[in-house]
Amino acid sequence: MKLEGKGISVEIRERELVSGASLHLSGGELVGLIGPNGAGKSTLLRAMLGIRDTSAGEVLLDSKAFLSLPARERARYVAFLPQERRVEWRLPAYDIVMLGRYPHQATFGSASSEDRAAVNRALDAVDGHELRDRPVAVLSGGERTRILLARALAVEAPLLLVDEPTAALDPYHQLHVMEILRDRARSGAGVLAVMHDLALAERFMDRLIVMNSGSIVADGPPRSVLTPELLASVYRIAGSPPQRLA
Amino acid sequence: MKPPVPYPLLIAGLAVFVVALAFLSMIVGPATAGTFELFDMMAHEKADVAWMIMREVRLPRTALALLVGMTLGLAGAALQGFLRNPLADPGIVGVSPAASLGAVLALYTGLSTAIPLALPLMGILGALLCALLLHGLARRGGVLTLVLAGVAVSSLCAALMSLALNLSPNPYAAAEIMFWLMGSVTDRSMDHLLLAGPLMALGWLILAASARSLDALSLGEEAAAGLGVNLARTRTLVITGTAISVGAGTAVTGGIGFIGLVVPHILRPLVGHTPSRLLLASALGGGALLLAADILVRVVMFGSELKLGVLTALIGAPFFLWLIFRARTELES
Amino acid sequence: MRSARHMSRRPIRRLHVAALMTCLSALFTSAADAQARPQRIVSMNLCTDELLMRIVDPSRIASITYLSQQPINAPLGLDAVASKLKVNHGLAEEVLMQEPDLILAGRFTSATAVNLLRKIGYKIIVFDPESTLDDMRANIRKLGEAVGEAARAETIIADFDNRLTALQAQIPPGEKPVFADVGVNNFIAGENTLYTHVVNASGYRTLGQALGFSGFRNVPLEEILSTRPALISTATPWTSPPSMSTMALRHPALRAIVENTPQVSIPERYTTCGAPSLLGAVEILVAARKTNG
């Protein structure tokens, strides 16, 4: 299965957040989407998912128009873990993971044995069985990320888009999360993750896509992408000290 | 957290409670008429009058207390789930004030004395207009826009109701408007039940269709959208369902506050915090609470009958305060 | 009481058939009777209470409102009658239990209960609030006809008019001075209100007339100060718990006027309804007019 974005642009009040971005994600690969803050990575992800309107371009799933599919069908093909880690109410972890089965269930349906099996597999994948009855609201950052990741895995979609999965985690948990994503890719799913940690990206990713100011500026294997020239022009690391970019 | 009671058991328990209260409501009369006077009448060859009172007075009253209570509990739970805010209630989106305004206008213009059902019909019209206005105002914005639009509609309706009181032609008409605003199910007829009942049921179905989306919304709007939740559709369902059911209820009973706020709160831990499971539980809980309150106003008499809306506010306001204090201590600890 | 009733059930059961027969025959005769003259009349409005008590024999009254038994509301000279009658609180259920053959109601009172009773099929006559003395006379006639006592109604009107004429004869000649009643809820009566008609009939103008408006209105203190009333009303029993009307009178700006102006106190029950109790107010005002000129 292959998800492809062609010439995607996103505008908000005359301002272009993403301009003419083209990228693709195939089953079995683990791809990193990197770039400085404000480069348009999250916006591009949302546009690919159909959560955000595009002003130009198209998204194709195996060469068919992806965005004209019903929302629930889209959700069955492409799972999404947004950056937001807040969970309302004091829902137990198990129920949160079960929400990953939403696209598979009817409006008035309840959980099937297949749904429960998928939730158990997802909890296996993140090693989260001991957390299943605890409210997500009281979990630590690492635990919460694992449970929310399990929620995205429970969709059992062929493709998975993840926004900053390692944000605000200590090194141990960062590695843990990256291993989960890599296992997922090795088992055949296509995984695209927005990343900030270049070292982690270089170590785990099969391919990196670099964005800067709304455009894709590089796409290829980590070693060929992360050149000193690119770091200097995109991240302003070599010449001048790091600055805060809005 | 795991619910302390299994869900089916909780629902069955609440249902039994509701049935018991409805039965009690059918046999308890107003204190001034003699609480159990009906039994004496049945024993003294006045059975026909007793049965007529059961059928024409207590049945519609009991049914309306039950249905309106259910509506308020259900709509409160749906709105709290949709807005992801435990302090939301049907009043916050302006539906009940709009229904009240419609009804007050029927009283003010004298339409209600000419046509008895003009009062609830105008109330329903007010609620529907409010829903249309909210759709227009909040179509592009998010949850905050919806809440602000609701607050604006509520304030406008409150101002127009005050204007009607202010300009009311005579003190009697003003008093009538004020009494109506206090909220009551006393002496409603089968006509009221037949008018409001089907509309409330329609509103429930619409709200129920939003149930699973509310669960997904626990993860935030983005994650929910990523799971295939259509946010615009969910908003339409919640607003329309609330407007139709609460509008129809308010149009018949007047303003009854705090049920929609308090009931979901009490029951949320018992259903394991799941928004969709809270809907049915809150509906039953709301029905039980309003039935109990309506029995209480009959038993406790202060000269004349206490208005139902006054009683629910008397119970609800301190609870609301306690809620705020508890939330504060949780935040500070 | 309750246990006594339980004990009496057995013999009644035994006489079941006989009792039922008696009841049925009684029902038919009373139904025919009621056609002409209702025998179990319920009044659900304070003002119809008074008219009803004046027009029919108490034995034909099934109930009046609980308000008429309160001392502050009891109509002039009817306290003794009212205290012996059954009462209702405007609830349909109470009224049904009293098995009325005629129900009297006000336009603005217990509207939901009245609608319900009408729907069930009870005969209900609704009375509009009176804004003139002629309205009052019309309502007395209407009620008299409804209960089959047209002649009695005419007598009451004639008595009222005779007494009113006698009182008016005592009013000193000259222009009508202003009587200021900073009323309950700050309502001041202007033209076209029953209150104003009563005050006029007693030889005064109301503050509202002096200020030149119609109906009831909230008047700011400034406007009240712009007039020089010849007589003011002070707290009535209704307002003796602190209320806006008495508070307004304590305002320093008013105090000077209050201290230098003659005062009267008119009980609320003399002015609430368009009914013969109005004479109570007329007596007080005419007496004041005689004393103060």
Distance between the termini of chain A: 35 Å
Can you identify the CATH class of the largest domain in chain C? Answer: Alpha Beta
Shape of chain C: elongated
| Nearest-integer average pLDDT of chain A | 88
CATH superfamily of the largest domain in chain C: Nitrogenase molybdenum iron protein domain
Beta-strand content bin of chain A: 25-35%
What is the share of helical residues of chain A?
25-40%
Could you describe the largest sheet of chain A, including whether it forms a barrel?
Answer: 6 strands, mixed
Quaternary structure of the protein: heterotrimer
User: What's the helix-strand series of chain C?
Assistant: HHHEHEHEHEHEHHEEHEHEHEHHEH
How many separate domains of chain C? 2
How much strand content do the residues of chain C show?
A: 5-15%
Runs of chain C in which pLDDT lies below 50 for 5 or more consecutive residues are 1-34, 237-245
Radius of gyration of chain C: 23 Å
| β-strand number of chain C | 11
The spatial strand order of the largest sheet of chain A comes to 6-7-8-3-9-10
Radius of gyration of chain A: 18 Å
Order of secondary-structure elements of chain A:
EEEHEEHEHHHEHEHEEHH
What is the averaged pLDDT score of chain C?
Answer: 80
Total helices of chain C: the number is: 15
Description:
The complex is a heterotrimer of chains A (246), B (333) and C (293). Chain A has helices spanning 41-49, 71-77, 93-98, 113-126, 141-154, 171-186, 198-204, 222-225, 228-235; strands at residues 2-12, 15-26, 30-34, 56-61, 64-65, 78-81, 159-163, 190-194, 207-212, 215-220. With 246 residues, chain A is an alpha/beta fold. Chain A has a 6-stranded mixed sheet, with helices on both faces. Mean pLDDT of chain A is 88; it is low at 239-246. Chain B has 333 residues and is mainly alpha-helical. Chain B is 76% helix and 1% strand. Chain B has 15 helices and 2 strands. Chain B has helices at residues 7-27, 37-43, 47-83, 95-108, 111-114, 118-138, 143-166, 171-182, 190-208, 211-217, 221-226, 231-253, 259-267, 275-299, 308-332; strands spanning 301-302, 304-305. In chain B, strands 1-2 form a two-stranded antiparallel sheet. The longest helix of chain B has 37 residues, at 47-83. Chain C is elongated, with a radius of gyration of 23 Å. Chain C has 2 domains: 41-167, Nitrogenase molybdenum iron protein domain (Rossmann fold), CATH 3.40.50; 171-292, 3-Layer(aba) Sandwich (Rossmann fold), CATH 3.40.50.1980. In chain C, helix 8 (133-146) runs antiparallel to helix 9 (150-168) and helix 9 runs parallel beside helix 15 (278-292). Chain C starts with a helix and ends with a helix. In chain C, 50% of the residues lie in helices and 12% in strands. In chain C, strand 1, helix 4 and strand 2 (61-65) form a beta-alpha-beta unit. The B-C interface holds B 29-30, 32-34, 37, 40-41, 43-46, 49, 52-53, 56-58, 112-113, 116, 169-173, 175-176, 184, 186-191, 301, 303-305 and C 5, 9, 12, 19-20, 23, 66, 87-94, 96-97, 99, 106-113, 115-116, 118-120, 129, 185, 187, 215-216.
